TrEMBL record:
<dbReference type="Pfam" id="PF00702">
    <property type="entry name" value="Hydrolase"/>
</dbReference>
<keyword id="KW-0378">Hydrolase</keyword>
<dbReference type="InterPro" id="IPR036412">
    <property type="entry name" value="HAD-like_sf"/>
</dbReference>
<dbReference type="InterPro" id="IPR022468">
    <property type="entry name" value="PhnX-like"/>
</dbReference>
<dbReference type="InterPro" id="IPR050155">
    <property type="entry name" value="HAD-like_hydrolase_sf"/>
</dbReference>
<dbReference type="GO" id="GO:0008967">
    <property type="term" value="F:phosphoglycolate phosphatase activity"/>
</dbReference>
<dbReference type="GO" id="GO:0006281">
    <property type="term" value="P:DNA repair"/>
</dbReference>
<protein>
    <submittedName>
        <fullName>Phosphonatase-like hydrolase</fullName>
    </submittedName>
</protein>
<dbReference type="GO" id="GO:0005829">
    <property type="term" value="C:cytosol"/>
</dbReference>
<dbReference type="InterPro" id="IPR023214">
    <property type="entry name" value="HAD_sf"/>
</dbReference>
């Protein structure tokens, strides 16, 4: 089976198809402040470092790690989502250059495209609406749709099941973080492609299993080629 046999492309959103521009960190700062952690304080710095290292992971999982008990994690997650929603509503949300065109080309090649995220469904839908992307993909998935978020394989495997794709060897998983790469490798995807438009660099992407590293999502249709 060759790369051109890929039938399903599972794409991350923030950092891969949607520009982040520091929005996650800004929203995290608001969440930390809601829990009494001042940005720039000694307590805040290691938390921010953890957020950066775990970009791509389900956000509620990150907050459970940082704040311990479930009540505090849920409060932090709610504050994060509200801050992120406010940033999106203020116009701080844009596609990665060439992303919409790449998705259209992948679908024109006869491939199904699924957009995935570590955000909640409410946040994902807010981003899609802000970009006018409600119909851009065959399917959109968040961690609650799949069971577990990244770095587990659930999102990629749920995409396979929902699109009735025959084999994991017909799947490409694409993202900007090491957690995206782990999701792809654990799901058995034939192509696990990292892009350099987001959180992690080429070394981290390759260490976590990238089969290919691309400058951006715009290069993906050319990599996969005509079916």
């Amino acid at each position: 089976m060759s790369i051109s046999d890929i039938r399903l492309v599972v794409l991350d959103m923030a950092g891969t198809t949607v520009a982040d521009d520091g929005l996650v960190e800004q929203a995290f700062n608001a969440a930390a402040l809601a829990l009494g952690v001042e940005p720039g304080s000694p307590e805040h710095e290691p938390m921010l470092a953890h957020v950066r290292a775990t970009m791509g992971e389900s956000k509620i999982s990150v907050f459970r790690h940082l704040f311990g008990d479930e009540e505090r994690a849920q409060r932090a997650n709610q504050a994060f989502e509200q801050a992120y929603h406010d940033l999106v509503e203020a116009g701080h949300c844009a596609p990665i250059p060439g992303a919409a065109e790449a998705i259209a080309e992948l679908r024109a090649q006869g491939r199904k495209v699924v957009l995935t995220t570590g955000f909640s469904r409410a946040t994902q839908d807010r981003i899609l609406a802000a970009l006018g992307w409600q119909q851009i993909a065959d399917l959109t998935l968040c961690p609650a749709d799949a069971g577990r978020g990244r770095p587990y394989p659930d999102l990629a495997l749920t995409a396979l099941l929902r699109t009735e794709t025959d084999s994991v060897r017909e799947v490409a998983v694409v993202g900007d973080t090491g957690y995206d790469m782990l999701t792809g490798t654990r799901a058995g995807a034939a192509v696990v492609a990292g892009v350099l438009t987001g959180a992690h660099g080429a070394e981290r992407l390759r260490a976590d299993g990238a089969t290919h590293v691309l400058a951006s999502i715009a290069e993906l249709p050319g990599l996969l080629g005509a079916r």
